[in-house]
Specification:
By secondary structure, this protein is α+β, with helices and mostly antiparallel strands. Helices cover about 50% and strands about 10% of the residues.
Length: about 325
């Protein structure tokens, strides 16, 4: 299995997820969840982690965390390692608890962090566990809205600052912000992740690539580097799709959108402007094409040929 690429630096902001091995439950009791929260607290004390939001599901968890000391690996080794030891001792078991290494997406500390906080807090609603986020006990949502007293180790100030100057106004504003999407289907902010690693503005992504990735060579061991390398052009995607699917305008359009979204490195807004559609429409078209590819063997084989051409040396810088 390819190891995930890690970028660490002081002040880095991440969306972190970790799933149970074989998707099995990692939290089986109230005590388990309470114990996990103590490891979040000790991570702030021992490793200077800033925990912005959390949500503990049955077989995985979500965190938004910041690393003033640039030490994400040490923080995560502490959280996952300590909890695995606790879980194994309690149940007289041994071996891995979590599936592989945690997934960490480096996030621009701006409006993307605000959107991700809503995504994290709505996770129990999206999965149908509860109808409203305040009904779920094991997330930081009620600590943001003031329904429960927040522990000192939870860092709420950065995200709440978007919603008001006073704490009461910010809490009301944040509650409205989250609840405004409860009854609507919406696109995950993670749909805009670049190279399975970066989420942020074009300036943020460009700066990270320049500072941390320039000069590093893609390999089978670090596949995100290939995705983050200068991408194929939109024109190349259009040409290849038209050669194969030019006679089916509707299908060709969805395939162009999907392949541009996957390979060009352009933002949803930029892709949408080429077709005269919204960000949301781009995401839906890409998902629609992906489903067709996955369920149609002939189409899948043709797309594999196109993708092989797109990744060939003549399309690389």
């Amino acid at each position: 299995m390819a190891r995930p690429l890690r970028i660490s630096f002081p002040g880095a902001f991440y969306h972190v997820t970790s799933r149970g091995n074989e998707r099995k439950a990692v939290f089986k009791s109230r005590r388990d969840r309470e114990q996990f929260l103590t490891y979040l607290e000790t991570a702030t004390e021992r490793y200077d982690a800033l925990i912005h939001t959390y949500c503990l599901m049955d077989n995985h968890y979500h965190l938004l965390l910041e690393t003033p000391a640039g030490n994400l690996p040490q923080i995560m080794q502490h959280i996952n390692g300590a909890y695995t030891t606790y879980f194994n001792v309690k149940r007289a078991r041994s071996g891995h608890l979590f599936q592989g290494r945690y997934k960490a997406i480096l996030v621009g500390k701006d409006a993307y962090a605000k959107e991700l906080s809503r995504y994290v807090h709505l996770n129990p609603v999206r999965t149908g566990i509860v109808d409203i986020p305040e009904a779920y006990e094991w997330s930081s949502y009620n600590l943001y809205t003031g329904e429960k007293k927040a522990p000192l180790w939870l860092c709420r100030d950065f995200i709440l600052a978007y919603f008001g100057a006073s704490i009461s106004a910010a809490q009301r504003g944040y509650k409205d912000f989250v609840q405004g999407l409860i009854h609507y289907e919406y696109d995950s902010p993670l749909a805009e992740v670049t190279g399975s690693l970066l989420l942020g503005s074009e300036d943020f992504i460009s700066a990270i690539k320049t500072k941390f990735l320039q000069g590093r060579q893609p390999s089978n061991d670090l596949p995100p580097l290939r995705q983050l390398a200068p991408s194929v052009t939109v024109g190349t995607v259009f040409d290849e799709v038209d050669k194969e699917f030019g006679g089916d305008t509707a299908l060709a359009r969805d395939l162009k959108i999907h392949l541009c979204h996957k390979h060009s490195g352009e933002k949803l807004r930029s892709i949408g402007s080429r077709f005269g559609i919204s960000d949301s429409a781009v995401s839906h078209a890409s998902k629609r094409a992906k489903r067709r590819i996955e369920t149609n063997e002939e189409l899948r084989q043709k797309i594999q040929i196109i993708e092989k051409k797109l990744s060939s040396p003549r399309n690389e810088p």
